[in-house]
C-alpha cells in the first residue's frame, strides 16, 4: 500500500489498521513490539516532512477517534477530529481555540505530534501551550492519561534551546520536564496520542483584520519592526511579490497580514501613512467573514505551491527555519542571496512576527531540484549560525531528519535517542522520523 503526504513524499506499508478504541490500539502496539513491526501513525495527510508516511509495517489511522466534548475553558477531543471542527465547535460555544496551522483540515493528533502553531502563534504560541492532558498509548501497549504538571519519572540530559519564539526540532529535553511537553512535538516516535484536553480561551473581542500592501519589500520590513509591539496584535504575516504573483493577487512589492484585538482605527491610519503602505489598495475588515477571506488568501499560497510541484513531478523544497527576532532581516538577506542564483520559481512568505519565514522552491528540472536541496542545507546552517532553529513548526520527519545534526551535538542527539530507546525499545513507532533506524 502506498501513502503520500502534502509535500508529495511517498512510502509503503504492508497493512492499514483503523482501530476505534484504546484497547484495540493497545493490542496492535503490543503485538508490533513483540514482532518488531514498524507502526506509523496517520492523520489527515497534511504533513510536509514525511512524518506520517510509512517505511514499511503498519499504518495506524486514528480517523475513528472523533470524540468531542466542549466544556467551560476546555475541550476533550479525539486525535482523529479535524482542527476546523474543534475551532467551529469552540466558536459556537462562545470560546476560542487559538492555534491555527495553515491546514485547518489537519487532524488534531497531527497538530500535537508536530506541536503545530500557525499565524496566531505571534500572540498565542504553539499547540503545546494549549494542552491540559493527553491520553497516550505507548509502544508496549500500556495506555496512560498524562496530566499537565506530571513530571517524567526518569533522568534525561538537557539539550540546548535556541533563542527563538518557535522551535520544533527533536526532543526538547530538560530534567523533570512535563510528560505532556515530551510527547507533544515528538512526531509520533514516543507514543500514540489518542485523545487530548485542550484549553479554550474566551471569545476575542472586536478584531480588525487586514491585508496591507506595500510598494517594496524594504518598506514592509520597516513596518514589521515598527508594528511588532502594537498592543494585542494577534498575527503579523509576510507575503512577498512572487507569492502575490503566484496566487494572482494584487500587483505590489509585498504584503503584511495583520490582526489586532480592540483596535483603534485612527491609530492604524496613522501607522499606514507613516509606513508608506498602499492604503487605498489594502483590505480591512472586522467581521468573521472578512477574517475567513483573508485566511483563505494567505493559505492559498502553500496550496498553490503544493499543486505546482505535484504537477511538475517533484517534491516541494520548503524551509521551516526560525531565527531570533533581532536577526530576521539577516536571515531574509541570506534567503535573497541564495534565490538570486536560483533559476527556478520560489516564494517567500510566513510568520515574520516570529522570525519564521518560509521559502518554498518549486523545481522544474533535476538541476533545479539539486540546487534547491543545496540551498535548503545552506540556509539551515545559516539559521543555526544566527542562533535559530532548523525546525519551527512542521517537525523534521524523514525528509529533514539530517538537519538535527546541524543544530545539536552528538551527545545531545544521543540523549534524545536514549529517551526513544527507553519508551520504545523495539523502535517501532515512527521509525525513520527524527533519527535513522540502526
Quick gist of this model?
32% of the residues lie in helices and 21% in strands.
What does this protein look like?
This protein is α+β, with helices and mostly antiparallel strands. The chain is built from 13 helices and 19 strands. It has helices at residues 22-35, 83-92, 108-113, 121-124, 179-183, 217-227, 241-246, 265-275, 288-312, 328-339, 366-385, 404-407, 410-423, and strands at 2-4, 10-12, 15-17, 39-42, 58-61, 68-71, 74-78, 95-96, 131-137, 143-147, 192-199, 201-202, 207-214, 233-240, 254-261, 283-285, 317-318, 345-351, 356-362. The strands form five sheets. Strands 16-13-15-14-18-19-17 form a seven-stranded antiparallel beta sheet, with helices on both faces. Strand 9 (131-137) and strand 10 (143-147) form a beta hairpin. Helix 10 (328-339) packs antiparallel against helix 11. The chain is globular and about 65 Å long. The protein starts with a strand and ends in a 15-residue tail after the last helix. The mean pLDDT is 96.
